[in-house]
């Protein structure tokens, strides 16, 4: 008897392969956007995130966003010079015919590119004093434990697929926010500092429907060195 987990694994692989349009073959849509290297082994985040999920997530899902974005931009060479982040910041300047496709796939590309960099098995490392205090203020918490609980609660409040973010606002203050689908804080004039993927494909093979366990586990997988450096750069 095929379990739901086994069925989902097969569906994920098949769907991603179709969506990616033979991503590993010669016929994959060429264009200005490229799939970035993951930067570490697929099993580097074990046991918190399993290797198979990372392989499918990066090599299929993220690759599909890149391929679909390049395909959408194929007839618009004037847009090739813009990064995914720039496209998201200026969606009103993207032709209406491809705007939704660009919104979804530039969002998927930019969001995941940041997500991979935000992950690293941190062995209990915590953010530094300045970032730590900014996080407490953004999450209206007095302790790191309260902040973690507030973050997890906000993640559980996202209905369906989406992301949870710590973002830097125009006044350089830090804020907690969520977005649906592949939307990004960049679309609203803010810069994402740390983003966590809440789509089921990010965790279902290991955690099934237990999003709370997935988000809690990621507390031990935040690359605080990267996040802190990004915070200093964005608030300098």
The CATH superfamily of the largest domain is Iron/manganese superoxide dismutase, C-terminal domain
N/C terminus separation: 57 Å
Number of helices: 9
CATH architectural category of the largest domain: 3-Layer(bab) Sandwich
User: Helical percent range?
Assistant: 40-55%
Oligomeric status of the shown chains? Answer: single chain
CATH-defined fold name of the largest domain: minor pseudopilin epsh fold
Estimate the global geometry from the Cα principal axes.
globular
Overall number of strands? 3
Q: Strand order, main sheet: write it out.
A: 2-1-3
- State the secondary-structure class: mainly alpha
Give me a quick take on this structure.
The chain has 236 residues and is mainly α. It has two domains: 4-22 and 45-117, Helix Hairpins; 129-235, minor pseudopilin epsh fold (3-Layer(bab) Sandwich), CATH 3.55.40. It contains nine helices and three strands; from the N terminus they run H-H-H-H-H-H-E-E-E-H-H-H.
């Amino acid at each position: 008897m095929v379990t739901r987990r086994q069925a989902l694994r097969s569906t994920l692989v098949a769907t991603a392969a179709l969506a990616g349009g033979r991503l590993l073959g010669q016929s994959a849509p060429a264009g200005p956007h490229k799939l970035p290297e993951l930067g570490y082994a697929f099993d580097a985040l074990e046991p918190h995130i399993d290797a198979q999920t990372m392989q499918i997530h990066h090599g299929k899902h993220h690759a599909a966003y890149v391929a679909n974005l390049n395909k959408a931009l194929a007839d618009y060479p004037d847009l090739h010079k813009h990064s995914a982040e720039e496209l998201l910041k200026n969606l009103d300047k993207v032709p209406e015919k491809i705007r939704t496709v660009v919104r979804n796939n530039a969002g998927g590309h930019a969001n995941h590119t940041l997500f991979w960099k935000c992950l690293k098995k941190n062995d209990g490392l915590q953010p530094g004093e300045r970032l730590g205090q900014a996080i407490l203020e953004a999450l209206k918490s007095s302790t790191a434990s309260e902040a973690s609980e507030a973050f997890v609660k906000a993640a559980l409040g996202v209905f369906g697929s989406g992301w949870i973010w710590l973002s830097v606002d125009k006044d350089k203050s830090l804020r907690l926010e969520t977005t649906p689908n592949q939307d990004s804080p960049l679309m609203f004039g803010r810069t994402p500092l740390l983003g966590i993927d809440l789509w089921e494909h990010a965790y279902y093979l290991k955690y099934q429907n237990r999003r709370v366990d997935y988000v809690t586990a990621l507390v031990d997988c935040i690359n605080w060195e990267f996040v802190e450096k990004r915070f200093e750069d964005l608030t300098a």
